[in-house]
Amino acid sequence: MLGGRGRPPSSYTSGYKEVTDDKGNNVTFNSDKANRGNDPDYLTARLKRSHGEIYNRWLAGEYRSVRAAAIDAGIVRELTTVEKIKKLWLKMTPEEKEEFQMWATEQL
């Protein structure tokens, strides 16, 4: 049951705390996360809605994938090489970090 403007009514109980104001909340009621982010259906809808020209070029086959079209549109941002290395660094064991540091020092 929704209140005004598609929001839950002011007496809505979220399960963790009772919401008593009518300011709205940063809550997503659709728990299907597959339809957001990098999901092809989401990217297609977003291209169609916000970047019609690129969407039409994607339909015409100018892009190898909807993700490539979304990157061109600025919807998806590819990580830089340094960002990828930083993410991998956080996953490395201490031994792997030491090995990588020795290798990187040799490359200088």
Account of the 3D structure:
This protein is 48% helix and 0% strand. It is elongated, with a radius of gyration of 22 Å. α1 (40-50) crosses α2, α1 packs across α3 (66-73) and α2 runs antiparallel to α3. The chain has helices at residues 40-50, 52-59, 66-73, 81-91, 94-107. It is an all-alpha fold. It folds into three domains: 1-31, no CATH class; 34-77, no CATH class; 79-108. Mean pLDDT is 80; it is low at 1-9 and 12-16. It contains five helices and no strands.
List the total number of helices. 5
Structural class: mainly alpha
- By DSSP, the count of extended strands is 0
Order of helices and strands: HHHHH
Sheet with the most strands? none
- What helical percentage do the residues reach? 40-55%
Strand residue content: under 5%
How many domain regions?
Answer: 3
- Mean pLDDT reading: 80
Globular, elongated, flat, extended or rod-shaped: what is the shape?
elongated
Low-confidence stretches at least 5 residues in length (pLDDT < 50)? 1-9, 12-16
Distance between the termini: 63 Å
Cα gyration radius (Å): 22 Å
Short structural summary:
The protein has helices spanning 40-50, 52-59, 66-73, 81-91, 94-107. With 108 residues, it is mainly α.
